[in-house]
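Recap quiz, item 2
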Amino acid sequence: MNRAAKALAVPALLLVAAEIATRLSGTTSLAVAPPSSVAVALLAALGDGTMLAATRDTLACAFGGLFVGGAIGLVLGLLFGLVRPLDRLMELTVEAIRPIPSVALIPIGMLSLGFGYSFEIAIVAFACVWTMLIMTRAAIGGIEPRLLEVSRALRLSTLQRIFKIVIPAALPRIIVAFRLAAGFALVVAVTVEIAANPQGMGYGILIAQQSLSPQLMLAYLLWIGLVGYGLNVLLSLAQQRLLGRAAMGEVRQ
Amino acid sequence: MERADLHGLAEAGACAVGAAAIEFHNVDLSYSGKPILAGLSLAVGKGEIVCVIGPSGCGKTTALRVAGGLIKPDSGSVKVGGKPVTGPRRDVAIVFQDYGKALLPWRTAAGNVSLALEAAGTPARQRKERIHALLEKVGLHGHADKYPTEMSGGMQQRLQIARCLAQEPSVLLMDEPFGALDAMTRQTLQDEMLSIAAETGATVFFVTHDLEEAIYLGDRVIGLLPNPGRIGTIAKVTLPRPRNQLETREMAEFLRLRRALFDFIGKAEG
Amino acid sequence: MNGRRVLWLAGSFLVAAGFVWIWQWIADHRLISPVFLPGPDRAWAALVKGMTDGDLTEKLFATIRRMIYGWLLASLVGIALGAAIGTSKALREYLAPMFEFLRPLPASAIIPVAIALLGLSDPMALAVIAFGSLWPVLLATIHGFSAVEPRLYEVGRALRLSRPAVIFKIALPSASPDILAGMRLGLTVALILSVVCEMLAGRDGLGNWILLSARSFRAPDLYAGVILLGVLGYVSSMAIAAVEHRLLIWRGRAR
């Protein structure tokens, strides 16, 4: 059996088993539905545009938060990485705020911003800042010391050193950080929608559950999985294009 | 080289010593269709030190792994101590070249030696003393609590040897054990290996790519030919023991053997 | 700890104190409505009051219990499953692609399904937390077990170690750095999902506390809860870092 067949064997088996089990049991459940009716519900929800609109809202917030939080994290990470005294002075402040779970800010966001895009973007941004900050700072700290010696031997100015040596050398790991933060952004956006914000895919799946429509709920679950997987594939393709295959190994860090 | 000659050499290899510690008999082995060993026959006498050299791809490491029971030959038989090899055995110890990978990085020096004792079911009470003695024997006295990452390459290889000695082996299979070490460390370890072999009376099957090392250590040097691996030459080393890094290497016989084996390798590679 | 390090710490403490002072100043001058942003004095007072009369302490421990139970369950299942899959090439070929698909799925998306199955209950919360923190542990364990140096397995064979001995003396310690990294990530996920489940299902705990405080405009209580969640996040990550340091001491002591 080739690799693709092996990869599909177990999921296919599970789907068939689920189909048979749900059909045979005959009872109408609030939690499970035959895969075939989930597929029908998925196509219907995609067809009438509601699911696509929800996807648009979620992705808008995820990317909005990613860019705001990522930019803040990148700038702070570069600053802290380049100016060590600043990093040390900010240590306690950063370590005090960073461990706050992003979802703990949901009630504060609800109070101060109300429901909507800006609320969700703010929470996602908070979650993305830290990944970007920590990894950018580490990327700069991890630059081969020999390269910095080269820049001194060549008598480069500080600005030249930053733009010709430091940032290019740290770039591969910064791109990896961005990819991790992007995956994180989608997770946080969906979580905020499920927990509080009445919009997007997270709200869609919650409403499907509350309206006792298990096939639509599972269709949303499947769709969220597909969107997450698609985003992941796109990002790793982009990373490969940007960095070449040699740098892919760093993802694990 | 002619076929008839090869056969004669194989016979010579098989009949060189009476009581054999390791016996290869007509061993064939191929890997995904490519023959690695073809009709290998060789006998190593008890307490003998046999060094195996040859260009890359001649199957010298494969032969060692067959003797260690790590791989099974396609046909032919291998016996150690008169008994057929069916798998790894406690009386056969293997010293790997890549000591960095073959030691458990999460165990200290003492812990790594202990692994062999645990495998042999030595009671916990007796282990400590044995470990101490073994570490002392390989010159690691006082380093028992160090982790492998805290040790130099030479120390790590000594540690691996200590772990192998903990098996109390009658046969030591050594796969280019000193290949990755610097010249000075290598010479020290060569001498220590010789004295350990003399002390324990163990049979040594030593694979190396260093001709001088092979002559310096061995009672015999076996030269393998590549594609497929088979015996190309057998050189008996009559240099007196104990050997000496300076004097032995300056002897006329040493230089003659070095020349002969150098020519052999040159032809084998060509 | 040397003198210079102490000086830097003192400096960074002063900076943090400066930020708290700015926060206080903003609150005092009502630059941001106190409905949204109480001063640190009021948040602190609410925290102290909540801790002394026991309300907040109770919520804190409810959240800790939920987080730890879910995380332990996930760790046990994740390590056992991961070890089985990681040591078997066949299992990996059949299951790894499916896991790659499931990995980016936001764990919180499973909450509505869990509610449909188990209702707004504690078992529901436990199931969600365990499911969410299972993935980091499982995937890291699979990686750890499949990345064991093949030479070490050969050493195990050469020494004729038994199969359990190979697993417990070679494979498990070798995979332990990956497993611990997965468990650390799993603990973070467990805390986040505990808070979300408490908010959604109204289960007792800090998540529910901060949501109710926000709904009834008790901003100082809300901030006290958020501060406690931050402390919980910090302490749990410190604790697991200490365990990692202790267990992985052999990695740090490089030449």
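Confidence is low (pLDDT under 50) at residues 1-17 of chain B.
The two ends of chain B are 13 Å apart (CA to CA).
End of item.
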